[in-house]
Structure formats: C-alpha cells, structure tokens
Amino acid sequence: MNYESGFEAERVEPMTGSASLESDEAAEATRRRRWYIGAAVLALLLAIGAYFVVSGAGAEENTGGKAQLPSVTVIAPGQSTVDGEISATGTLAARRDLPVGVVGEGGRVTAISVDAGDWVRQGQVLVSIDRSVQSQQVQSAAAQVQVAQSDANIAQANLDRSLQLVERGFVSEADVDRLTATRDAAVARVRVAQAQVRELQARNARLNVVAPASGLVLERNVEIGQTVSAGSPPLFRIARGGEMEVLARLSETDLAQINVGTTATVTPVGSDNSYTGSVWQVAPLISSQDRQGTARIALPYAEGLRPGGFATVVIKSGTVSAPILPESAIQSDDEGSYVFIVDAENTVQRRDIELGQVTSEGIVIAGGLAGNERVVLRAAGFLNPGETVRPIADGA
Length: 396
Fold this sequence. Notes:
InterPro entries: Beta-barrel_RND_2, MdtA-like_BSH, MdtA-like_C, RND_pump_MFP. Belongs to the membrane fusion protein (MFP) (TC 8.A.1) family. This protein is of the alpha+beta class. The protein folds into five domains: about 1-70; about 70-80 and about 320-395, conserved putative lor/sdh protein from methanococcus maripaludis s2 fold; about 90-95 and about 245-315, Efflux pump adaptor protein, beta barrel domain (Elongation Factor Tu (Ef-tu), domain 3, Beta Barrel); about 100-130 and about 210-240, CATH 2.40.50.100; about 130-205, Orthogonal Bundle (Helix Hairpins), CATH 1.10.287. The chain is about 35% helix and about 35% strand. The chain is built from four helices and 23 strands. The protein has helices spanning about 1-65, 130-165, 175-205, 250-255; strands at about 70-75, 80-95, 95-100, 105-110, 120, 125-130, 210, 215-220, 225-230, 235-240, 245-250, 265-270, 275-280, 290-300, 310-320, 325, 330-335, 335-340, 350, 355-360, 360-365, 375, 390-395. The strands form five sheets. Strands 1, 17, 18, 19, 22 and 23 form a six-stranded mixed sheet that branches. A six-stranded antiparallel beta barrel has the order 2-11-14-13-12-15. Strand 12 and strand 13 (about 275-280) form a beta hairpin. Helix 2 packs antiparallel against helix 3 (about 175-205). The longest helix is centred in the first third of the chain and has 62 residues, at about 1-65. The protein is rod-shaped.
C-alpha cells in the first residue's frame, strides 16, 4: 500500500509541472499580443496627428493664415432719425401755492369750514374767530353816530330859526355865523362816528379767514379753540385752481434744448399712470454748485399728483439724427461706455461713446460715433484693443 501511494505521487508531480509551463507560455503570448495592439494604436494616432498637422500647414499656406483669426460680427449703424427725449427727475409742487393766514387782530378760533383736500371758492370763509367784544364795540360806535346825528339836528334847527330872525334884526350876522359853524361841526362829528362804525365793521370782517382764490386745500394747520394772530404761521395752503407742476432738474446742455411750451410726460414714483404737461418756465439761472437749472412743467389737476412727491420726467426735445446700436454691442467699465470698432486693417480699436435715450430699436449713441464705422456687434467682451480679427458683416 505504501508503494502504491508513492507511485501515485510520482505520477502527479510531472503532470503539475507541465500545466504550469503551459500557463506561463499563454500569459507571455497575451502580453505580446497586447503590446502589438498598443503599438499599432499609437502608430495610428501618430499618423492621424501628422496628417492634421500637414493639412493645417497646407491650409494656412493657401489662405495666408486667415483661418486662425477670430471671426467677429460687425455692423455699420449709420444715422437714424429719432424723437429727441430728455429724461430727468423732479419734485411735484403746486404751481401757485397760496399760504393763507390771519390778516386781522386775531383771536380764538370758533369754527373751521374746510379741511385738507377740499375745494374752495374765492372769498369763502375758512375760519371764524370769536368777535363778541368787537360786536359790542360796533354797537357802541353806532350809538355814538345817533348822538352825533341828534346834535347835528339841533344845530341845524337853531341855524334855521336864526336865519328867519336875522331879517328882522333880532339876530346879528355874527350869531348866524356862529350857529352855522356849530351846525357844520355837528355834521362832521356824525361823519366821524359813521367812519368809526365802518372801521370796526371792517375789522370784524377781517376776523374771518377767507380763501384768496379758488383752488385745492393742501394743508390745514389750525384747530377749533386755538388762538391765532397776525404773527401766526399760515393756517392753510391752497393750490390755486388745483394746478400742479414738476420742478425738473436739468443740465446746462439739456436746458439749452428745450423751450417754453415743450411737451413732457410725468410719471410719479410708485405709480403706473403718466400725465402730460408742458414746460411753462425755463430757469434763467444755473446753480453754481451742481451746474444745473430747473424746468417747470405745468400739469392740470389729477388725483394721482401729490405735491412733495418725486416723479420721472421725459421731455420732448425735437428730432435728432444719431446712430442706434443694440445693447449687445455696448460695453462699459470704470471709464464709461465704449464699443469696439474694426478699422481698415481689421484691427480692433476701442471707441468711447456717450449714450442717449433707449428706444424700441436700441440705444441712441449721442456722441462718439459717426455711424459709418464697423462696430463689433457681439462678443466684444472677449476682444482686446489691437487684436486682428476677421470681420463678418451682420446678416452675411
């Protein structure tokens, strides 16, 4: 049994060594096969790369190197006629703001007939002031008129009797002159008393605060029971006729482009409604601080116009001829707005511009372009001044 076991072991060992040898040969063949495949792929890639290099060099020789230049779309905007507009901001105010205060001696307020936002007519009583003392003074003065009138009547009667007796010689001419003077003095005292009554009545009438003109009450600064006098602040502010205006601040250049009667559109801040007005006054002076002046734009009354608020203003300034560019062609930096133009040598150049109004067709170029330049339409942000490009006309 031991011999059999040994015999079997001897037979197994040579079989195991043969299998291992075959496995090594297979692995070696696999490695060689992979190496051949890798070398073939590398050779193929080198051949493809060499082909493109040779083809590119040949194309560059045929085209003079232009195929490598970046292509940009350019546009020659020309000149377009647009309606000139000047945009500004301003403050809403009453065109004629009337402060209403006490014109008499004043006193305690007993009644107020209007409030802010009410419409009033000229001469309407706004505030009544206590006049109990003044009424008694008028009555006293009226009684003095009656007393003076009685004295004048007696003096006239005495004079009449003396004139009848002077012809008989019972009364001298001197007595007649004296009685005439007495009569005249009595009549004068009547007139004085009557004038005093009228004066007191006029003073009492001035105790009523009345509207100096028809319009809209903007402010009320008085309450019942308050004591007011001629030195008190205005009790009311009235917009005469309800007319409003916008005080638009404009530069010297913009002021020179508008005239009285120029149409303007006003849009209050926070409102979607716009109102049409016209310039009724152009400031004769320019502020030395900000080099601006004021254009006053008259507006009819509208509920949405509230004095003291801000508004944007667009003023028509006639027609102008200027280039118009889309927003994609315009760049900006710390130095301002600019565009890139392509010169005769196809070189990119920077051109500073001045922007005008925004229209449905684009942005008006107020300065810096004549309109016949080739302006880079898109992708100008990827270009640099002095760079050579291949321009392509828009739409080509």
